[in-house]
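sorry for the late reply, my laptop died twice this morning and i had to redo everyting from scratch. anyway the thing you sent over, i finally got around to it. pasting the sequence first so we're on the same page, its 161 residues, then the predicted structure underneath. double check i copied it right bc i was rushing
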Amino acid sequence: MAIVVNKPLPEFEANATGGVKVSNISHNGQVMVLYFYPKDNTPGCTTEAMQFRDKYKDFVKLGAAVFGVSRDNMKSHDEFKEKLELPFELIADTEEKMCHMFGVVKNKIMYGKKVKGIERSTFLIDADGTLAEEWRGLKVPGHVEEVLKSVKALNALKKAA
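ok and here's the structure:
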């Protein structure tokens, strides 16, 4: 089942670093940021993770949980998390269940060959488990600030309601 903005997320469950289980209902009552990235320890993914790390306290102040998602295994995630001192957990989607559900698996051309890769994308889920906003095929510079602004806007809407 595909995800759609302004609709509840379909059921899913995934394992993250730190022994954390993440699902469509595990963080109800809290805003959740899921950012999908191609691979641990690559230049763009390292930069993106560090930018989320550097703004993490701002997300926490706004009541948001942040999770990075890639197809890398738990061992790779643990090492990446430790190396960059990431304060948030990383989801190991080795079977690509979440990647397919969120529609981030794309055909790419690398060195003249067609390969399946992950399109860098971020999803903002509101406290009720509804997809509030999505960014697909994004560029890293300035992106984390944009997500932070959207979390603030979401919180402002909730207070106004």
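The chain has one domain: 43-160.
thats about all i looked at so far, will dig more tmrw
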